[in-house]
Amino acid sequence: MLRKLCIAVAIVAGTAQPLLANKIDPKADQQAFQNYFKKRFPKVQFNDFVNGPYSMDAGLRKQWKAIDAFPPYQFAVEKGEKMFKTPFKNGKTYADCFPNKGIGIRQHYPMFDAKLGTVITLEVAVNQCRVKNGEKPFNAKKGDMAAITAYMAWTSRGKLMDIKIPDDPRALAAYEKGKEYFYTRRGQFNFSCASCHVQSAGMHIRTEVLAPALGILNALPIYRSNWGGIVEYRNLEYFLSYMANGLPISGPGARP
Amino acid sequence: MSDFSDAPVVRRTILKGALAGGLVGLGLGSFPFPAFAADAKGWPADAFKHKSEADTLKALYGKTAEPSDKINLDAPEIAENGAVVPIAVSSTLPKVTGIAVLVLKNPNVLAAAYKIPEGTMASVSSRLKMAKTGKVVAVVESNGKLYSATKDVKVTVGGCGG
Amino acid sequence: MASTIRVRAVASGGTTTVQSLIRHPMDSGFVKNKKTGKIIPAHFIQVLEFEHGGKTVFTALWGPAVSKDPYVKFSFKGGKKGDPLKVSWVDNKGESDSLTAKIQ
Question: Hey, of B120, B130, B157, which one would you mutate to test binding to chain C, going by the most C CBs within 10 A of its CB?
């Protein structure tokens, strides 16, 4: 069964999204990306794509709703709020580093930092703030970072993803690198991210359901992910987040 | 947007071990329900050690259960995550005094037991760990007798950390 | 120190519905610490009680098969907005916590 799936996916993947050699056009990519998923899943309400596998399977959705009604990540959000409001040794706080005092801004990340010439994610911005104020950066994969970003995601719930790609060749190049990563096949099964999350979105792999790539990052940070941590590939995140512009932030997310 | 607005706190006390005995004095034993072998906290240690439904119910209630269609056991067909399986039990049986949930393929089958005093509804929701695919049994004590309902739940990612 | 207990208790039509989420590891004693290879000792809530109007309205007797950061939902007749609802738990190590919340 898996072999047939591999073959089917390889055939379909070969015909997907050719990389534009000439002009990088994120807006056109985004329209095509969103239209593909709307057409493929006509019964899914557009905003529901941000709920990943739960928009695809009623049984999983019911379990998730039961847990999300009073979610265990509540404790992380509370911890994050406390950390967020606690001043640094120099008396400043995170609010001093971010627009709108850092409240309800998650939907703007990742963003392109023209001075640094790179894409920065929310986690990078949090650490920049810490270092700027004389504190040690967080290990991005550990609890403290997740708690703060959980709080920041929580204050941004419902806000629509709003990623900007300025007309700067470096920003466009970063976006294109992220897109290339997404569609490139790798690993022993020769799958790309797209193989599963575009071509096979909504399909069952054993009893897991493949989340569609559209909106797949809107629920960050994810709690108890069995990938063992938060995926932090900045350019990939830049590409995928931009694809989801217009979809609401749904983080933090409870997932197995 | 929903928020975490919980019922406001009036008073909080952190009790330590020595006061735990006082906790028992507060409520347990003040209403009629079958006494079972319990420790100082009122916890039925023995009932939590068994590997079969029959032994567990004998230890917990001193009885066996008969199937009833008046018990609604809401559990997923396929548990997304064996570490957190939402399970709800409710019953229209009369004079319910206890509800228990057993997970038959767990190392010890009793997951939880609930005492339902008069005036409390025969309905409980909780989140349980399931080690692997198997049956979940909801047991209801009504009018001094035991009734049960069973459901098969498939588990792919085991709930015991494996 | 912040309480481990979170409660949402809502009175409606003569019935109070209570949901509670508690911060507790609920370690089963079956899991090994991945780094040290040693078994993480069992550490779980055994008895959880809810009291209203001087009466126990619900008791949970839990084992290690209850999920981490355990949750429970139940309802009882009576209770009105503003009434105190006391929640207390004790675990297998003899640790405990208690909170009095107000019914909404």
Answer: B120
Tokens of A123: 């986690």
SS3 for B145? strand
Q: Does B9 touch chain C (CB under 8 A)?
A: yes
- Distance separating alpha carbons of residues C63 and B61, to the nearest angstrom: 16
- CB within 8 A of A164, min separation 6: which ones? A108, A111, A112
Burial of C53 (C-beta count, 10 Å sphere; 0-12/13-18/19+): exposed
Q: Do A163 and A108 contact (CB within 8 A), yes or no?
A: yes
Do A134 and A196 touch, CB atoms closer than 8 A?
A: no
Do the Cβ atoms of A78 and C2 come within 8 Å?
Answer: yes
Those residues whose C-beta lies under 8 Å from the C-beta of residue A222, and which sit 6 or more positions away, are A230, A251, A252, A253, A255
* H-run or E-run covering B58: helix B53-61
Q: Is the pLDDT of residue A221 over 70?
A: yes
Q: Are the C-beta atoms of B72 and B78 separated by less than 8 Å?
A: no
Question: A256–B81: do the CB atoms touch at under 8 Å?
Answer: yes
Residue B140 has a CB neighbour count (10 Å cut-off) of: 27
User: Which pLDDT does position A205 carry in this prediction?
Assistant: 78
Residue-wise pLDDT tens digits, B49-85: 999 999 999 999 999 999 999 999 999 999 988 999 9
Residues of C within 8 A of B95 (CB-CB) are none
Q: Which of A63, A67, A70 to mutate to test the interface with C (most CBs of C within 10 A)?
A: A70
User: C68 and chain A: CB distance < 8 Å anywhere?
Assistant: yes
Q: Rounded to an integer, what distance in angstroms lies between the CA atom of residue C104 and that of residue C79?
A: 9
Say if C74 is an interface residue toward chain A (CB within 8 Å): no
The answer to which of A187-201, A207-221, B19-33, B103-117 has the lowest mean pLDDT is B19-33
Which class for C34: exposed (0-12), middle (13-18), buried (19 or more C-beta within 10 A)?
exposed
Element (H, E) at A32: helix A26-40
Strands (E), chain A: 111-113, 118-120, 204-205, 208-209, 222-223, 253-254
Give the pLDDT score at A218.
Answer: 87
Report how far Cα C77 is from the mean position of its chain's Cα atoms: 20
- Name residues 99-138 of chain B within 8 A of C (Cβ): 103, 106-108, 110-117, 119-121, 123-130
What count of other Cβ atoms lies within 10 Å of the Cβ of residue B86? 23
Q: Does B160 touch chain C (CB under 8 A)?
A: yes
Over the stretch A64-86, which tens digit does the pLDDT of each residue have?
Answer: 999 999 998 899 899 999 999 99
